Amino acid sequence: MATRQTFSYPRTGRILQGLSIALVAVSLAGCAAQKKELTTGSIPKFDKPVQSMTASELSRAADSIGNAYEKNPRDRNAGLNYANMLRMTGRNGQALAVMQQVAIVHPSDREVLAAYGKAQAAAGQLEQALATIGRAQTPDRPDWKLKSAEGAILDQLGRAPEARQRYREALDMQPNEPSVLSNLGMSYLLAKDLKTAETYLRSATNQPAADSSVRQNLALAVGLQGRFQEAEDIAMQELSPDQAAANVKYLRSVLSQQNAWQKLAKDEDKGTN
């Protein structure tokens, strides 16, 4: 989920763009959330699980899946897998091009439309992504995943109240879903309400299905409040030594902007008085 967004707080948005906060789940957790999205049926066999691959291994895996896609561009699963792997390796423009072709062949497939919307969002086409996700959703059979995806796009558009409504609708359908709770927490983090963000993110991490990406978001929320050691401890949980080292390095680079964040908050507070 790598694009640069503009949020509802103009000056805050510039700092958030630099830190890529909205993408921290992918950047810190090794694309843990996206790695779960690969569909079966068209995936070449790899020597190790996708979840444990390094960046170079992911790139090679993407090329391997790309070969399967090129042999049969009309293969739905091959297209979905290839686009997802491309997004995981940062090739968002190429992922969008693949999903455009898949959507032409499968224009009514909800999973295809959802993946197409994600590819559009990753490529910065937020309004188009919102429309595509809306086409994938059906009133008689609403999908909580699509509700959450819609919320994430609305957050990137600076429409936080609408985004949070979508997350709560998703939670009504899928109570205590950690990925939705995490998105809701990140929505508050983007608005600089760090305590509320931490509350939702802690709730997310306490769920049995929570993955590392959720914990990395919690680490960010904790670190931005000045509790750096606690944040690093959270960031290092359940990861290989290499992943833990990379996560802590990234977290430190983000938290090095803490003084800028605090100064920004004070300046904005002064400006509203």
From TrEMBL:
It comes from the Bacteria. Gene3D superfamilies: Tetratricopeptide repeat domain (1.25.40.10). Residues 1-32 form the signal peptide. This is Pilus assembly protein TadD. TPR repeats lie at residues 144-177. Keywords: Signal, TPR repeat. The lineage of its organism: Bacteria, Pseudomonadati, Pseudomonadota, Alphaproteobacteria, Hyphomicrobiales. The keyword Signal applies.
